[in-house]
Write a structure and sequence with these properties.
Layout lengths: L22 E2 L43 H14 L1 H13 L5 H14 L13 H4 L2 H8 L3 E5 L9 E6 L6 H7 L6 H4 L4 E6 L9 H7 L3 E2 L2 H9 L10 E6 L2 H5 L8 E2 L6 H9 L2 E8 L6 E2 L6 H14 L6 E2 L17 E5 L16 H26 L8 E2 L2
Parallel strand pairs: 2-11, 3-6, 3-8, 4-5, 4-6, 7-12
Antiparallel strand pairs: 1-2, 8-11, 9-10
Helix pairs in contact: 1-5
Length: about 400
Amino acid sequence: MSDCGGSATAENANNDPTLKKPVSSKRLPIDNKHDDSPSDRISSRCTRSPQKNRHGRRIRWAPLNIGLERRLQTFVVLCHTLTIAIFLTIFFFSCAIPLLWPVLIPYLIYISLFSTTATSGSLGGRCNLLRSLRIWKIYASYFPARLHRSEHLPPTRKYIFGYHPHGIISHGAFAAFATEALGFSELFPGITNTLLTLDSNFRIPFYREYALAMGIASVSRESCENILTQGGIDGEGMGRAITIVIGGARESLDALPQTLRLVLKRRKGFIKLAIRTGADLVPVLAFGENDLYEQIRSEDHPVIHKFQMLVKRVMGFTIPLFHARGIFNYDVGLMPYRRPLNIVVGRPIRVTQQRDREKLDDNYIDLLHTMYVQELERLWAQWKDLYAKDRLSEMEIIA
């Protein structure tokens, strides 16, 4: 996620805050000749037939004369989407080689029982070279994706970026906060950011090493506190940041195109974390994240929805029934649609640190939560007519 930046800075805009534009990464080159156009977006009521699209026509196949650049974009996004499957396949093939067992068996025991790299806050294994590879710019140009900054964030503070919405796979969060494709370090110099994911992902052989190299860490409370209280310019976390996809797996079930439904009302754990560590809260709104896939509406299939919620309670993640486009067609498959992603980073909310977990002020927690929601609403109101022109409804906070 080529470089981002085409908007005027918020600091240099006029004094009317509703007219200010955020600093952005450089515009990504894109040829829209064969894109999934807004007019082809499916109704949020149901999914397309595997034989015909919603207009009653047969599946639209991609022409053979598509350029190499676009084919390369598709290949990189496909590899990212199948990353876990690819690494598991490599692992199982390795297990078929007896000569590797003396290495694989201790490795499995280590990552299952003893490894703390993903939660220690040391950012061990992080590889800035890998995060800055050209392939991530190719990945971002598929949509294309852009990162926009509302205000400069001084590196003398620590931050919690709250990413909304979750979407199906959170492609925008990966592009903006796990790579340098969208120029995070240029927009926020001096800040070392860590995207967080489920702790269970660090028990997956080989994929674990890849995730750590990308600078990804566990979303557990221990991990968050360690990252924000160690290292940095003062040894206590200053200049560090974490990115949490606040809505989590529950929100992915409401990731319907042209809508924005957030699970946030009862999500206050990240607020308490900010108070304990003294990290400022920074809301992030990703316009277009929900448009990348279609999925069955949960209210139309209550039995399926109950099963999905059961899986979430038992396993910590859920399984949305989704589809989008294919590798060689525009109507059926698991590849995300080519639709713009505009990730807008809001204004920081200053937090006063209270180290004692047992004495956190509930009124202060509620106040920060209210301010956080208000900043999200401001971002939506300011940019919805530019980045969500085809919306079917306004932003909703449903739970």
